[in-house]
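Q: What residues go here?
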């Protein structure tokens, strides 16, 4: 199984982390402030298909530079990308696949410049997600992670090995091939 770091514990980051965790992957969800404390106390509260459940995903305020991930994901708002990338700074010398899921097309280029050894893929998440009263709700549209068009060449086509690994990991979670 793969090791993941998910930066951003909003609706999408929390949803991805629970799916990956439940699939048996090693996941570290990075959060801040009140959200970090809530996750430490209660875990991720997820409402999906009308059923609510609690998932205890490992959570931290920082990455562990001693144990770099195989994959990382930036699941923050586009305006938060620089502060999110600062959290990955301890991993700057490591090689891993980085999936950005912001709506902004500039995210992969910014990420690649900050983390030159990472293999960056830009993507966008489809589905209806919201974080309200500490509960992540996913309703209606099945979740999908689609490759995003990007102004830099690398993110839309990963080299075969990282792309295949990430595809094999995300496909069972409801994502189409990258």
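A:
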């Amino acid at each position: 199984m793969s090791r993941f770091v998910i930066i951003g514990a909003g609706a999408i980051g929390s949803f991805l982390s629970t799916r990956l965790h439940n699939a048996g992957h090693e996941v570290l969800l990075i959060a801040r402030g009140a959200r970090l404390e809530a996750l430490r106390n209660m875990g991720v509260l997820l409402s999906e298909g009308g059923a609510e459940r609690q998932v205890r995903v490992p959570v931290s305020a920082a990455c562990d530079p001693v144990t770099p991930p195989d994959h990382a994901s930036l699941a923050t708002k586009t305006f938060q990308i620089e502060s999110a990338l600062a959290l990955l700074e301890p991993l700057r010398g490591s090689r891993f696949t980085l999936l950005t899921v912001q709506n902004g097309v500039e995210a992969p280029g910014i990420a690649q410049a900050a983390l030159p050894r990472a293999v960056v893929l830009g993507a966008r998440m489809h589905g209806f997600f919201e974080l309200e009263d500490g509960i992540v709700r996913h309703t209606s549209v099945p979740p999908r992670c689609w490759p995003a068009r990007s102004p830099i060449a690398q993110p839309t086509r990963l080299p075969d090995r990282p792309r295949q690994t990430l595809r094999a990991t995300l496909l069972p979670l409801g994502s189409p091939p990258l």
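A: Context that may help when evaluating the design: Residues 11-22 form the longest helix (12 residues). The chain has one domain: 3-173.
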